[in-house]
Design goal:
With 95 residues, the protein is α+β, with helices and mostly antiparallel strands. The protein contains 3 helices and 5 strands, in the order E-E-H-H-E-H-E-E.
């Protein structure tokens, strides 16, 4: 059986207290995250729910949660806050 998770990413209209920069190295290590952000940009949308294999979703969740913990706790609402190409984003995983 094939299980999926959903990367839930929103472009923010505020600056959270704690966030990190999503680097090209991060995106090289997790190309599906780049795919989700590029699809969001291509669609011209402020958010995306991007379905990925369950294991891949949890790997991204773990990685972004770790990076967030290095800069400070996220306020409620998102697991991680990051910048990408000059914009701020909030990230959650739905499984």
């Amino acid at each position: 059986m094939y299980y999926t998770a959903v990367l839930d990413i929103d472009r923010l209209n505020f600056e959270p207290d704690h966030y990190f920069e999503l680097t090209e190295e991060d995106l090289d290590n997790y190309p599906v995250l780049r795919d989700a952000l590029e699809e969001m940009k291509r669609q011209g949308e402020g958010s995306i729910s991007y379905e990925v294999p369950n294991e891949e979703g949890y790997a991204i969740f773990d990685y972004l949660s770790q990076k967030q913990s290095e800069v400070g706790p996220p306020p409620s609402g998102y697991v991680a806050y990051f910048t990408y190409e000059g914009a701020l984003y909030g990230f959650n995983l739905v499984s």
